[in-house]
Design goal:
- There is one protein chain.
- With 592 residues, this protein is of the alpha+beta class.
- The chain folds into five domains: 8-170, P-loop containing nucleotide triphosphate hydrolases (Rossmann fold, 3-Layer(aba) Sandwich), CATH 3.40.50.300; 183-267, Elongation Factor Tu (Ef-tu), domain 3; 286-357, Elongation Factor G (Translational Gtpase), domain 3 (Alpha-Beta Plaits); 364-470, Alpha-Beta Plaits (2-Layer Sandwich), CATH 3.30.70; 473-588, Alpha-Beta Plaits (2-Layer Sandwich), CATH 3.30.70.2570.
- It contains 13 helices and 30 strands.
- The strands form seven sheets. It has an eight-stranded antiparallel β-sheet with strand order 10-9-15-6-7-14-11-12, with helices on one face. Strands 20, 21, 22, 23, 24 and 25 form a six-stranded antiparallel β-sheet that branches.
- A hairpin with a 4-residue loop joins strand 23 and strand 24 (430-438).
- It is globular, with a radius of gyration of 29 Å.
């Protein structure tokens, strides 16, 4: 585990090579990054498990269960689930970048699980490597001595044999009793069109074999095991798993909801007394609507989301409808990158054309009658006269930066309505800045601004820190005086007018002209705060008049004027998908 781009997948490649786990003819860079999307972006999105066999220097043969985890904060739930299946963790730190914000976050997750930590400094072959300073940062973080810190180059393979030896010697073997009743924790899964749901399990106690009758302890559903085995890294069927093993189970599970991540599998005839403590329920932070560009693809989108949520348990969704876009789903994500990845996977893996509404956060609305509503769709915010106050989610952000940039970054956070909590000096050259920030303020462009102000040397991590009352308003977009619910958004009152002007200007340019004048307005309640006008297409009704009395031309123009008034009152304005996409591109064009 590590911060993003610190070399986890490259190190996994060297370990696969040294343990001869992959045929050299099939070996490629970032071997465990199996999705094209991961290879194109150069990031790990899904954790990947693999079973390795290592011949140690003492002559013993060890078997390792290795899980390669993502590094981006949006996929931290993958890391927390992986740690449930492990006894130890390799904490990888870039020698040039040093300890970063997500490094500390991942380390805390591993410490909470009581895992053995092996600190490793990677990229020691770089000319700009700061090995001694990075050692000092690690010791300041977790204690210990310099001798306990390993130095490797995942690119060249230097130091990797010593790392494998340290894993064999330092990390304890799995605990568990093979004679006890079966307890197998489902930590991941995916859907196979031929064999149903594939459950990725860590067997805590007991044994399971082909043909065993099993039961899900959470749902109570019963199945017969049709296959089980290990990841090497392809599926290798062994017909048997016992305590301490990490592997997979086929049981003909066709209904996706019957194999939930975090559930415990036990034997039907000899069940365990209680399930394994599962995972904390992940709470989405960012919400947006997904609609099929063609409404006939609604059922395909529903099926695709169900299968994708099996493979990505952090994804949550529920049905919703929009007057402008038809039937779709309100989806919850851990961040903007998570949202972007899910949309791309739906389009690539399921051949769907997706239209996504503007991302927003969930608000707590306190009503005048004493009720409280949690609203994740701006279109569902109650009318202003019913609202006593609106609370928005705040996060506790951690910025790890060289000290020379701390003033600029503090100023950046204050511009985003942030509140400084604390500054801690990690070393004499690096500082941890803790800020309370509205979640909505870090959705757009914040990461870009952070990297610009720090010349790419600062890193950012955050966790939810509750709700606070804010002066927020819902801005409605009216097209020909009719609200377009899919374009409504929440904004701080001070920025609402500027944001409204930007949106109506984009719509003026992208909505095609009609035979009547179309006003495009941004409104807060009944107050119009911005307006643009799309001029009418004019048909030349007097083209057929070749001279004659002027009253004839006036009569034709007057008839046209009345016709346009009637058309404007009863006509409907079609909003093309390009208009929605243009607004969203302006919203999230710089998101990270």
């Amino acid at each position: 585990m590590a911060h993003i781009d610190h070399g986890k997948s490259t190190l996994a490649d060297r370990i696969l090579e040294l343990t001869a786990s992959v045929d050299p003819r099939k070996m490629r860079e970032q071997f465990l990054d199996s999705m094209d999307l991961e290879r194109e972006r150069g990031i790990t999105i899904k954790m990947q498990a693999v079973r390795l066999r290592y011949e140690a220097e003492d002559g013993a043969t060890y078997e390792f269960g290795l899980i390669d985890t993502p590094g981006h904060v949006d996929f931290s739930y993958e890391v927390s689930r992986s740690l449930k299946a492990c006894e130890g963790a390799v904490l990888l730190i870039d020698a040039a970048q040093g300890v970063e914000a997500q490094t500390i976050s991942n380390l805390n997750l591993a410490i909470d699980e009581g895992l053995e930590i092996i600190p490793v400094i990677n990229k020691i072959d770089l000319p700009v490597a700061r090995v001694a300073q990075t050692e000092d940062e690690i010791i300041g973080l977790i204690g210990g001595t310099r001798d306990e810190i390993l130095k490797v180059s995942a690119k060249t393979g230097e130091g990797v044999p010593e790392l494998l030896e340290a894993i064999a010697q330092r990390i304890p073997p799995p605990k568990g009793n093979s004679d006890a009743p079966l307890q197998a924790l489902i930590f991941d899964s995916h859907y196979d069109p031929y064999r149903g749901t594939v459950c990725y399990v860590r067997v805590m106690n007991g044994e399971v074999e082909d043909g065993d009758a099993i039961r899900m302890m959470n749902t109570g559903k019963r199945f017969d095991v049709s296959g089980c085995g290990y990841f090497r890294p392809q599926l290798e069927e062994t017909g048997h798993l016992s305590a301490g093993d990490v592997g997979y189970i086929f049981a003909g599970i066709k209904d996706i909801g019957d194999a939930q991540v975090g559930d415990t599998i036990t034997l039907n005839q000899r069940p365990a007394g209680k399930p394994v403590p599962g995972f904390r329920r992940v709470k989405p932070l960012v919400f947006c609507g997904f609609y099929a560009a063609d409404n006939e693809d609604y059922d395909d989108l529903k099926a695709a989301l169900a299968r994708l949520s099996l493979n990505d348990s952090a994804l949550q969704y529920e049905q919703e409808s929009s007057e402008a876009l038809g039937f779709g789903f309100r989806c919850g994500f851990l961040g903007l990158l998570h949202m972007e990845i899910v949309q791309e996977r739906l389009e690539r893996e399921y051949q769907l054309d997706i239209v996504a509404t503007a991302p927003s956060v969930a608000f707590e609305v306190e009503l005048r009658d004493g009720g409280v509503q949690t609203v994740d769709n701006p279109a569902r915010i109650p009318p202003p006269d019913e609202i006593r106050c609106i609370k928005e989610p705040y996060v506790l952000g951690t910025i790890l930066t060289p000290v020379q940039y701390q003033s600029a970054l503090i100023e950046l956070c204050k511009e985003r309505r942030g509140e400084l909590k604390d500054i801690q000096y990690f070393t004499s050259e690096r500082a941890n800045i803790y800020f309370y920030l509205p979640l909505s303020e870090i959705l757009y462009e914040f990461y870009d601004a952070l990297k610009t102000q720090s010349r790419g040397l600062a890193s950012f991590d955050y966790e939810l820190a509750g709700y606070r009352e804010s002066d927020l308003v819902r801005v409605d977009i009216l097209i020909n005086k009719e609200p377009a619910d899919a374009l409504a958004f929440m904004a701080h009152r001070k920025r609402a007018q500027q944001r409204g002007r930007e949106v109506v200007e984009i719509l003026r340019r992208t909505i095609p002209r009609h035979l009547f004048i179309v006003p495009v307005q941004a409104a807060i309640g009944s107050n119009i705060i911005a307006r643009e006008t799309i001029p009418a297409l004019r048909k030349d009704v007097i083209a057929k008049c070749y001279g004659g009395d002027i009253t004839r031309k006036r009569k034709l123009l007057e008839r046209q004027r009345k016709g346009k008034q009637r058309m404007r009152s009863i006509g409907s304005v079609s909003i093309p998908q390009e208009a929605f996409l243009a607004v969203l591109k302006q919203d999230g064009g710089k998101k990270k």
